[in-house]
Amino acid sequence: MRDLPFICVGMEAPAASEPVAAEGSTATASAIVAFLHEHGLSIDRWACPDLSEQLRLALTRGVDVVLCNALDSEPDAPLSATLLRSCRQDVLRGLRAVAAAVRAARCLIAVGRELDPAVFPTSRRAADNPQVVRLLSSYPQSHPTLLIQTTLHRALLPGRLPTERGVLVIDAPAAFVLGRWVGGFQPVAVPLCVRDDRSAAVTLALSLPRLTVGDLLARLGLAMDRQTVLICGPKLRKQQLPREAPVGAVDPVLRVCRIVAPRASDICTRCNWCADICPVDLLPMMALEAAQFGDARAAERAGVRRCIACGLCDYVCPSRLPLMAAVQLGQAQLRAGVSGD
Fold it and tell me: Residue 242, exposed/middle/buried by CB under 10 A (0-12, 13-18, 19+)?
């Protein structure tokens, strides 16, 4: 692993052995699902929803496009960009293996503007496979609902799998893992980006999938106390993570953050910033009022079914209102069939 900017945690550097598939042949979708299960790789996260289920459904419903989500949600945690710069062939090998396994005719890679065009020149030519699409924004563009709409002009409801729209979405870290596996590298290793927001230090690591997050942090020398919290994925989502979770079952971007004391909410100023910034045209303030009155019909009118839980409404609200929590409550009420009458 001397050629890669990753620290190996709890293992020796992976080395090449026998490729999984002989030259000219491919790994099957069932073999990929079995590999993920065998090694404790539960890939179901913001940028790549339930990969195992996508693979299973692709065999029955069919997909025509495999889309590699190589967007980094935040520029201070550039895991995907690093993989494309330093491990391009591994990512491509994994992407092509998945495309061959599900018999998809096209491959796309969505990259952010922070990636040097020399690494992956923008290309939408039909003859290029994979085609490279460079997007102007990475967050919350990395959510599959927005990504598929932007790149393929196909509508996907939040919470639904991309295979419903004939697309299989895999992120760059998952493609890297599969590419190394297909190439015969052992042991299986998961790429991670660990950011300590207390010092702004960023560590890129390779870890065994079954190592716990707590063990990973300890081996990296990152101490946590009662004043810190561990979150995974996009920072604005504030998704806390238990230290007992295995590395192979979490989002590969981890953050150690100081706990910020909550501040009391103020009265809504009707600034409408929450609605203006919402990427799916939801009305968060109406959703909050619906939650306060237990009115599921009003929540429906506010558009809560479209929410992708990006957290932008909470972030911009000058009154610090719990808008995303209200939207999620409205979603729960609709699922439960609460009418609000």
Answer: exposed
Tell me whether the omega of the peptide bond preceding residue 121 falls within 30 degrees of 0, making it cis.
no
Cross-strand bridge partners of residue 232? 254
- DSSP classification of residue 235: G
With residue 217 as reference, give the H or E element that holds it. helix 213-219
Enclosing H/E stretch for 149: helix 144-152
Distances (CA, A) of 90 to 15, 95, 128, 178, 186: 13, 9, 18, 8, 13
pTM: 0.91
Query: Number of helices and strands (H, E) in the chain?
Result: 12, 11
Torsion angles phi and psi, residue 227, rounded to 5? -95, 5
Q: Residue type at 267?
A: I
Do residues 94 and 182 make contact, with C-beta atoms less than 8 angstroms apart? yes
Q: Evaluate whether 99 touches 182 at the Cβ level (below 8 Å).
A: no
* Closest-CA residue to 193 (of 341, 281, 77, 284): 77
What's the mean pLDDT in 289-311? 93
Alpha-carbon gap, residue 113 to 6, rounded angstroms: 23
Tell me the per-residue pLDDT of 67-95, one tens digit each, with 9 for 90 and over. 999 999 988 999 999 999 999 999 999 99
pLDDT at residue 235, rounded to an integer: 92
What does the pLDDT look like over 219-274, one tens digit per residue? 999 988 888 999 999 999 989 999 999 999 999 999 999 988 778 889 999 999 99
